[in-house]
Amino acid sequence: MTKSQKVSYCAVFTALAMIFSYVEAILPISFGIPGIKLGLANLVIVTGLYYMSEKDVFLISLTRILLMGLLFGNGMSLLYSLTGGILSYIIMVTLKKKSSLSVLAVSVSGGVFHNIGQLAAAAFAVSNIHIFYYLPALLIAGVVTGLLIGIVSEKILKILKPNFFD
């Protein structure tokens, strides 16, 4: 793959992740607990982990988080998203390297650790450890949304050819 093709793929994936984030932000879905979202942008990240370099996927994730935070968020939402996104990315990359783990396991771990990262950032931001009372609900949400994203990602991965990005 040429450098310009690689840049083009990264740009398209970043735009797709941003579109998913925006659609999710405007959908009137409420789970009753602050911070719970479907995580549609993670479809791009989880799928990308299996077709692109770790560096490219990290840049896609980071660029999406920064642009969405700057365009539609605020300092706190940017802090939460960055913390959750980076922790989630580190966990998913680490677990993906263990060949015995499925896409579902990687995705669920990403969902859970994204929520843990956001909760840790919130506890730090408000200087209150009691915010961790949300942890059980956020862990369950991370598992459920991670499963949904993982199932869809598996289907996408089965459709794409192994050399799709070559």
Give the class from helix and strand content and strand pairing. mainly alpha
Unreliable parts: none
CATH topology: Arp2/3 complex 21 kDa subunit ARPC3
Oligomeric form: single chain
The whole-number mean of residue pLDDT values reads 92
Following the backbone from N to C, one meets helices and strands in this order, namely HHHHHH
Strand tally: 0
Compute the gyration radius: what is it? 16 Å
Can you identify the CATH class?
A: Mainly Alpha
Distance N to C terminus: 5 Å
What is the total domain count? 1
Helix content: over 70%
CATH architecture: Orthogonal Bundle
Main pleated sheet: none
The backbone outline, from C-alpha atoms, is globular
Beta fraction: under 5%
Discrete helix count: 6
Brief description of this entry?
Keywords: Membrane, Transmembrane, Transmembrane helix. The protein is mainly alpha-helical and 166 residues long.
Written overview of the protein:
The protein is mainly α and about 170 residues long. It has a single domain, classed as Arp2/3 complex 21 kDa subunit ARPC3 (Orthogonal Bundle), CATH 1.10.1760.20. Helices cover about 75% and strands about 0% of the residues. It is built from 6 helices and no strands. The longest helix is centred in the C-terminal third of the chain and has 25 residues. The chain is globular. The protein starts with a helix and ends in a 7-residue tail after the last helix. About 35% of the residues are buried. The mean pLDDT is about 90.
Index terms:
166 residues; single chain
